[in-house]
Amino acid sequence: MAKKDKLTEALKKHFGFDTFKGNQKAIIENVLAGNDTFVLMPTGGGKSLCYQLPSLLMEGTAIVVSPLIALMKNQVDAMRNFSEEDGVAHFINSSLSKSAIDQVKEDILSGKTKLLYVAPESLTKEENVEFLRQVKISFYAVDEAHCISEWGHDFRPEYRRIRPIINEIGKRPLIALTATATPKVQHDIQKNLGMTDAAVFKSSFNRVNLYYEVRPKTANVDRDIIKFIKSNEGKSGIIYCLSRKKVEEFADILKANGIKALPYHAGMDSQVRSANQDAFLMEQVDVIVATIAFGMGIDKPDVRYVIHYDIPKSLEGYYQETGRAGRDGGEGHCLAFYSYKDLQKLEKFMQGKPVAEQEIGKQLLLETAAYAETSVCRRKVLLHYFGEEYPEDNCGNCDNCLNPKKQVEAKELLGAVLEVISTLKEKFKAEYIVNMLVGNETSEIQSYKHNELEVFGSGQDEDEKIWNAVIRQALIAGYLEKDIENYGLLKITPKGKEFMKKPVSFKITEDHEFEEEEEEIPVRGGASCAVDPVLYSMMKDLRKKLSKRLEVPPFVIFQDPSLEAMATTYPITLEELQNIPGVGAGKAKRYGAEFIALIKRHVEENEIERPEDLRVKTVANKSKLKVSIVQSIDRKVALDDIAVSKGLEFGELLDEVEAIVYSGTRINIDYFLNDVMDEDHIEDIYEYFKDSETDDLEEAIEELGGDYTEEEIRLVRIKFLSEMAN
């Protein structure tokens, strides 16, 4: 009894807690007993305490290997807060000066320091190895241990060298900790650290308070996120993007829309980065937009939502990042935006890496896609991935459970899948099995002559989507398993063999449809995209009147897509009008007043609620290119030279110049036209546009195309629009 109290007393004395969480106590007792210990504990479960407390109770200094400098600093600060002695915790890494390192070494040798954090790179430095051999070491802790495994979501080759270095410095007990590890990764870590006999403490990966949701990523993703944040005003959130560029752009967009947000990524100046992190911790900003570098060890308990702008590269990464929400047990909304295009992009990034790495990366991406597309309880899918069974059919706290899809009987389908796998002697992956079922004669199938087998095409009545759903759900139900050692070959479990002898009911839910959305291109001529057809036709009448009065073709005033946008968002001030595509300041001033008056009247008379509050204000970053193009044209630089200097194809440059002219900026490209085109030709095309009802390029090419190239027509159209409209 006394021992129990001693530990709890120590916990109270050093950390101020009255009770241990989960299996912390058993873990600490195992460490104190000098045994190797392997800890699998989700984010927020209290991993660090498992080595911090024993380090204070044992003789000597504990060495903690940790991957991130920012993380070390946080942990050291936290430890110093708990103790009167500043020297109780230190770190050694590349950010310290020579004299700072000497101070650290002095504290360690004098016995003050109980915890020393080192980066794996620092651990392997000759002078540090030499120094540590003189130190009495209580034990080694390897934090974020998943970094050891190539199958983990954050593989770091230098982590592979930890064991040999430990052997060189001097063997002591070892504790390895991670917040995410599939059975495969766990096995990898233990093998690499030479701790296969370690006691394993595995907490449940189920975070009951987290709500999981996946939405299709459409062209309106920015608006969706802004709407979400505004409906959660004052709450803290993290938004993860895959690229640094996206992080900066999106943080700017949020700021432009009145949201307190800051960016965070590894490429930023370290002082700015720390300042941004502190601003988030101190609640001076609500939102951090970050790459995955952010959040490792960030101890902010009240993050209320985590949004994935881009779907992550692996489910482990996803679990780790969503795990930063609701660490205090309160609400945590995990929202991911998924589009298959993003996955294809990620796969492209892998090209050029070693084949084995590409294979692993592809497997991990497939798991992520399966998670996003499934209609099964998301909790069930996640926990199954981490080797944990979730007995409930409905968790009541994910989008799929709150809006369940109808289940369909798939007994026959499962039978067909098992038969193909069995015929092929369990030597192929899911993708191959699906191709066999639907009868896709891929070159691989032909090379094995499997297209000659009876089972080839046995499932062509169903599409690939259904077969994928059957395989995924058969894995969760335990009829199949993936042989991860061999890149995910499908194997039939004893339960699956039993099913083959005696089939039972097997119900599946069909996967979500994530149809790729085309970018919305307003249909010209018809008001098919306009939300308000009445307003649209009133504006077309007004445009006709103006065109007669000013003697310019209607499209010179505003193009159809601009009118459609006005009939959708109802701009009622000149400033709002300028946010309409194709309307710049010049156009708004010249033609805008009458349109605004018309829209305002229409809105008031029909009591229309305007979506203006949901409008995403964009950041004028893209205008840098346009400004420099206008400046080059003012300096009379030849257009083909401008294209080369901006790294654009000539056609792309014309796109930019057209956008400039359509939005109402006047430019003069006569110097270039007169250089490359015959005067009569310019006049012919100009006259065509003067008499035409439309500025449509295809119609112009049809009319004039025999005599002039598309580029010539576009160039003169730019001149015409600039002179007539602007």
Automatic annotation (TrEMBL):
Question: Mind telling me what this protein is named?
Answer: DNA helicase RecQ
Q: Does the keyword S-adenosyl-L-methionine apply?
A: no
Identify which cofactors the protein needs according to its UniProt entry: Mg(2+); Zn(2+)
Which organism is this entry from?
Answer: Parabacteroides faecalis
**PROSITE patterns for the chain:** HELICASE_ATP_BIND_1, HELICASE_CTER, HRDC
Q: Which family does it belong to?
A: Belongs to the helicase family. RecQ subfamily.
**Could you tell me the gene encoding this protein?**
recQ
What is a single molecular function from GO for this protein? hydrolase activity
Instruction: Tell me which stretches of the chain form a coiled coil.
Output: none
